[in-house]
Every structure is written in C-alpha cells, then in structure tokens.
Amino acid sequence: MSSLASVPLSISDARAAFAGGRGYLAACTVGLPPRATVRAVTADVEAAAGGVPDLTAYSAAVEQTRALFAELVHIAPGRVAIGSQASVSAALVAGALPDGSEVLVPEGEFSSIVLPFVHAGRGIRVRTAPLADLADHVSNETRLIAFSVVQSATGDVADADAIVAAAERHGALTLCDATQAVGWLPVQASRFDAVICHAYKWLCAPRGVSFLTVSDRLLREMPARLAGWYAGEDPWASCYGGDGRLAGDARRFDVSPAWQAFVGAAPALELFASLDPDALRAHATGLAAAFRSGARIAEPVRASAIVTWTDPGGADLARLTSAGMVASGRAGRARVAFHVFNDESDVDSALAALGR
To answer: Is the pLDDT of residue 198 over 90?
Structure first.
C-alpha cells in the first residue's frame, strides 16, 4: 500500500479506475491504462503541442515513478535504475559477469532474458534446465541464475525460495525477471542481485518504462556500459563532455527516460501502490482458479493469475476472440490472465465461449 494512502484502495474502487477491462484477459500481453494515466498523457501532449513542455515535471515524474516502484518491491529508491526494455537491463547484468561464466536459465524462458547472455561473447555459456527443479541444477560452475518468477508462456510460478537458497550455497548471482509478476504477485527485490521489470503489462503503464534493481554486489561489480547524460549524479549538469560524475547509487545505470511514458506511468504505479498486495493477489489468482475449475484445467503447484492450456491449432483462442474477448496464444497454448479490472463475469464469459 502506498505510503501516501492511509487506507488501502479496494479492488472494486481500483476496477473503477479503468475505463475498460470487461472481457479483456490479456494483462500478460499488455496492460490497460487507467483513467488517470490517460488524463496525464493527454494533458502533457496538449501542453507540448501548445508550446509549453514542462521538463521539470518530466524529471519529477521519473523520480516519482522510481520511488513508487521501489515501494512496490520493498527496496530503497537508490537501488532502482530506470530503463526502457528488459533486454537492455539483462545486457547490463551480462556485462558484470567474468569471461567464461556459466548462466543457468529455465527451458523455454522469455528470450529477452536469455539472448543477452547467449550473445554476450567472452566465452559466457548458457545452460538450461526445467523450471520445476531449476534449483537442483545449480552447480559450483554457475555464476548467474536468470529466471522469470512467473513464466510468460505458461504462467508457472518459479520456486524462488529454492533458487535463492541454491544460489547462496554455490555463490551464484540471481537475476529475477518480474515483468509478469509485479502488479499481482508480491516481489521482495532485496532477495535477488537484480530484478528486472517492464511496467507495461501488469502495472498498466505506457510501454517504455522498465526498472532494474541492483544489490550491493552488483553495484560494485557491474560497469555502467550504457552511461549517458541521465546517469550522472546531477543529470542536468553532466550533459556535455566526459567529466561528469556518475551517480553513486543505481541511478548510474539509468538510461535517458522516455518522458511521456513516465508521465503516464506515475499515476498507474500510484494506483497499484495504493492497493493491498495480498488482496490483489487473492483477487487475481481466485479468478484464475475459478476459470481453471470450470475449464477442467489442473491447478498449478503455485497459484498464478495466468492460465494456459494446450491449443495447438488455436481453436480455443479463436472461440474466445469470436465471443468478443481478448486473450492470447503462446508456444502452442491458449493464454488468459485475470487482473484487477476483471471480475467473475469475465470468468463466466470465457467459460461460455469455450463451451465449458
């Protein structure tokens, strides 16, 4: 819950913050902007069109968004770097690995968390193992474990406790992609050496706003390979030349922000920071469980807001689409997601569309 709010926002009040959502089961693909985000971005574009863009307000939106994300993942704002894409942050982490390092990733992991290591060069090797027992495959050769806490293709929730424990036993770093988690599943960023999150899915922000949290260890070892003017201790004083002093905290890994995206992100993250995270998780996973029960899909080991099932020809996805619902298909599976703007009527409509 946001420190600005004394009482958590109810799920029903949060649902009312969105203009759409009925029949929309694709937060795992792209979130819907809340009304406040639409107003903020519209007002900014109109102001800019009128010749009065507000650079001070842009910087304030960036810092507000950073602080709100830090609050959502329970870490200090100085541990949070801003970015634009998950793969860019993953490439930064790859730059911190010694030559010849082994990186362990789950089979079928999202490519933005794999390819930066596959193509890192310097003899860095990527090894895969099943997500279900990923922790058992960590060895003394493993330098980094990179994984999504919620898998994009399947919705499976990783056993983060076991992975972190295995990393500690073998002295490995951990990189957790929380893009499919933050916004419905509570994440404690300080448990990992790095957490990456793009905010355009479950946090319902405009695309172009991502975050990277770093541990003390990474802050010491990771070079600021993407340093630009915004990575300075005082960005507006380091716009020229090469003498600018980098920020002493995670801001040294900042990339120049897409201003209007952050203008829209600030109210979206404020909305989610105002919710009780346990109530939001119960709401999302409860709807998903009701859908699984009606569709006769087995419950996962760990509750998830994403439901997927085998649909190689796309027939079920076509049925949902024909019924006016928005869902998605990944890796030969149909995929639906339940978020704060959904309710029981969406479960009923989806089941009816599938003839269940």
So the answer is: yes
